[in-house]
Amino acid sequence: MQKVIKALVALWKIFAGAVFCQFFPTSILVVGWSYRAMQRRALRIWQAHSPLAQAELDTLSRSDALFRRHAEWPNWFVQPRGLRTAPAKGVAARVRRWSRTVSASLGQNIRMGLLGILNTSVAMALPAVLWELGWYAGWDNSFNKGYEQYYVGIAVSWIGILMFLAVMLYLPMAQARQAVTGDWRAFYHLRTVWAVTRNAPLRAVLLAAAYSLVSLPIAITLSVPLFIENIVPGTAAMSDSEFIQFLNRYYFRLSIYGFLAYVFVRWIAAGSYARTLVELIHTGRLKREDLAGAERHALAVLHLDAAGEASKLHPAIAATLALSRPVWRAAVLGAAVLVWFTFVAQIYVREFLVYHTVRGFLNQPLVQLPWFRYVPRSLVQAARAEERRAANFAESPKNAR
Amino acid sequence: MHLLRRQLQHGGLSEEETKKKTENLQKLESLDYRLDGSIAPLPQIEKFWDDWRAFYGDTGFVNARGDRLLTQIAITAMDKLRPRLMVINYNDPDYVHWGNPSHYTRGIAVIDQGLRELTTAVEANEFYRGNTVFVIVPDCGRDSNRALAVPFQHHFASKSAHEIFALVTGPGIARGTVIDREAQQVSIASTIGRVMNAPTEFAEGPVLEEAFA
């Protein structure tokens, strides 16, 4: 029975996530929810790495508020069970407790979502704007036959692409750090975040590959509407309102996949961050002072915040490793950049086939806001006009019978 | 082609430039059916392009661009060559297969402006005033795929991609008449033949009789 309930709760969370991924304001909730899930992932990994005995870990899970909060996957609205207080006395206290219980998670999701998207936007704003400007300039040049300025669109686009590639060597780990620490300022701890990325280059490649692979079905799904009247011939005969319903169902299915893909890449990023951080602490490359927020507390109570014994390598091997490490790192991080380029290529091909106006370049759903509903505004306006005409016709005295 | 021929005639080019221009010229000439020897080059046309080149030079950066250039050439041709039949193939809106929606509407505005200039030029030219018929017709429609924010393709065989309009105006044309029935685009050729009293025995479509007063 417990398993059935757990499965139903999981389905509810996925369904709610897919619904929230339909709209711009509610997609912020998904960002916040995913950050809380990332924090949970990191705690789980650290618990597995901790030298504490299982009994001590169990006690910690029950006694420590941070671990009690993450006994289960985050909720969308309701306070986590582990943080609920005993029933209060008095009507006012009961009302306060009740309102906290039903909305604590919603508040957390909003707060962490806003802080998350704000920091991500700081990193992504310039590359995204350059993409959009380059795209416009390129087509503007083509339209106006401005041959002598052909390079403007191309150059601006490439600058944006190169900036994006550089940003993506930093951003996923910065997002993970912000999520795990629960501190928006930790996003800007450049030294620590970069230390995590450059000391785990293989994980950076794998994360880039994960992003690129899971984004491919999204790119395809966003391009298919170009052929929709050929694939589903009945759509041409639908009224505007009926066609919007059709597209709503189409993009809702995309949102189910998109939500899972969004959580998946963040789950991988959080795991990569958590493991690498512990390794860096253990090897002394990062110190306790470099930790922040909730991660400092968690690693302290799990006895993971101190350097371990230095590994005893033959000096020659240690020297070889020390010398080759920068070369190895540069090569593998270079590979990560190439893999991120495949992610960029999908964006350009997708927008070439079906241009999604400014949103197509300014918001990448897997990186920024997980907003997957792309019903054109012109269609919505046409449907509203159609409804008004129908209402006027029905209300007209000539037609009233 | 005229420019390339003149540049090769006048010489003063490097060996590589000569080779490249010769290849370009041969490629363009291979595509022009009028160069099979059945039509002799007209000295008026040669002079027209010589005058154009003398005024605007060789770069192509000084004269107007796109459909504005077509309007400019058309008005200049009306002034210097006095053609009795002129086909202007505007195509700026076609760029928006993959581009920004504003370019599509801007392309239409450019054509509107061009038509305004052409009608003004016709009214100002005694040769054309009062005896010129305008036939304005798209070569094809466009898709109206409502799932797209930029639905300006015409590659998907949709109904709207096959639907066009035709606007005919001038002396002898029925004023304010709307022909609200299905007609084929091939009727345009035979209708123009009727306007010009020219036989069109190879035209496939019937004349649009309702267009005439």
Q: Give the domain tally of chain A.
A: 1
Regions with little confidence, pLDDT below 50 for 5+ residues of chain A: none
Q: Which class do the helix and strand fractions of chain A yield?
A: mainly alpha
Instruction: Return residue spans of chain B where pLDDT drops below 50 for at least 5 consecutive residues.
Output: none
**How many extended strands of chain A?**
0
The description of the largest β-sheet of chain A is: none
From the alpha carbons, calculate the radius of gyration of chain A and give it in angstroms.
25 Å
Assembly category: heterodimer
The structure class of chain B reads mainly alpha
- How do the SSEs of chain B run, as a string of H and E? HHHHHEEH
| Rg of chain B computed from alpha carbons, rounded to a whole number of angstroms | 20 Å
Inertia-based shape of chain B: globular
Largest sheet of chain B: 2 strands, antiparallel
* Residues in helices of chain A, as a percent range: over 70%
Total helices of chain B: the number is 6
The rounded distance between the terminal residues' Cα atoms of chain B is 42 Å
SS element count, helices of chain A: 15
Summarize the structure.
The complex is a heterodimer of chains A (401) and B (213). Chain A has 401 residues and is an all-alpha fold.
Description:
The complex is a heterodimer of chains A (401) and B (213). With 401 residues, chain A is mainly alpha-helical. Helix content of chain A is 73%, strand content 0%. Chain A has one domain. Chain A is flat. The model of chain A has no long low-confidence stretch (mean pLDDT 90). Chain B has 213 residues and is mostly helical. Chain B has a domain at 133-213. At the A-B interface, helix 5, helix 10, helix 11 and helix 15 of A face helix 5 of B.
